[in-house]
Design goal:
By secondary structure, the chain is of the alpha+beta class. The chain has ten helices and eight strands. The longest helix is centred in the middle third of the chain and has 34 residues.
């Protein structure tokens, strides 16, 4: 999730558990702790693919943050002990602030290595867009109320209420994911598509309209499914360029991307380069993570040893308006094939 939401979540958790004694300072302490796991973004891991795939690694491990919580609780008790609450309560608060950060990240599509140093694939439940106002607003209101009126009396309950509301909303997003995938699976059966792998994620800034990808060899299908649809989704067939993947067989960056994304990738040959796009993130035709992994060397291909992330467009307000309209109206459907074709020009 975005850093602001993570800070709000941390502030709300700490205010719920220690606000009675720490007062408004609990908001500050929780906000700082809530952004701590994301400080790994300052580390240079070598190139753009490494920076992407090692982010949310060790700093987001359940094992690491648990050990860190023990260390921080011990340090806090040594430097500034408070007899009003136990060391165990302090540890549990710090641990919960850190753990809710990494678990919330796992609800997005990016990929969070919750079990590092184990080499299991990253966890990406992909039920929440990276910025979702419906999740963040209850936390924001609770923090504002607590900052203005303090954490005594009735206002002390606001953080807890906000946490319950935001957690219920996460449950709603998981239900939406199941709804979207079930409707697409029915459409697959009707269309005779049997072995495609399914990946689903919300469209930008909401959890009512879902983008579902079916990876099927050299092609992939995209479909949009809304809670308010009354007819089956349309499966839009798009070339994937998987034949180009064989050229990247010796590329460690390509192998890393396949592991990190569960191979939800697209390949394009443009300007004498092989471009690899992570299809999970962003929106059709607008994907923030795209890399050139090989380039022409005469009649042959040469792997690019130091990979950089290509500049990515974010779309425009007109397309966001179309996405918003698609939530409520199934027709006309969005021109997904046209949007995906834009990747051929970049």
């Amino acid at each position: 999730m975005d850093s602001i939401t993570q800070a709000l979540l941390g502030a709300t958790v700490q205010a719920s558990l220690l606000g009675r004694w720490q007062g408004r300072k609990a908001l500050l302490y929780g906000a700082v702790l809530g952004t701590l796991p994301d400080l790994d973004v300052v580390i240079d891991y070598g190139d753009a693919v490494a920076d992407m795939t090692y982010h949310r690694g060790f700093s987001h491990s359940l094992f690491v943050v648990s050990v860190l919580a023990v260390a921080l609780a011990w340090l806090a008790r040594r430097i500034r002990p408070d007899p009003n609450y136990t060391g165990m309560r302090l540890f549990f608060t710090i641990w919960l602030v850190l753990v809710t950060h990494v678990v919330l990240d796992a609800f997005t599509s990016y990929g969070t290595q919750l079990f590092w140093p184990l080499t299991t694939p990253p966890v990406a439940w992909s039920s929440v867009f990276i910025i979702d106002p419906l999740y963040s607003v209850p936390l924001l209101l609770a923090v504002l109320v607590a900052a203005i009126f303090g954490l005594q009396g009735r206002t002390a309950r606001w953080p807890t209420v906000a946490l319950v509301a935001s957690s219920l909303y996460l449950g709603f997003t998981l239900a939406g994911k199941q709804m979207a995938e079930k409707r697409v699976e029915d459409a697959m059966a009707h269309s005779g598509i049997e072995h495609a792998r399914i990946f689903s994620t919300p469209t930008p800034f909401n959890s009512f309209l879902w983008r579902v990808i079916l990876v099927d060899g050299d092609v992939y299908y995209e479909a949009l499914v809304s809670w308010f649809d009354d007819t089956p989704p349309q499966l839009v067939r798009i070339p994937r360029g998987e034949r180009l993947a064989s050229i990247l067989a010796e590329s460690p960056q390509h192998a890393r991307l396949q592991w990190f994304t569960d191979d939800v990738l697209r390949y394009d040959e443009i300007g004498g380069q092989i471009l690899v796009t992570d299809l999970r993130l962003g929106m059709t035709g607008f994907h923030p993570f795209r890399f050139a992994l090989a380039e022409r060397d005469g009649e042959n291909w040469r792997l690019i040893p130091y990979v950089e992330r290509l500049p990515a467009e974010r779309g425009d307000m007109s397309r966001l308006k179309l996405i918003w309209r698609r939530i409520w109206q199934q027709q006309p459907d969005l021109p997904l094939a046209e949007w995906a074709a834009d990747l051929n020009a970049r």
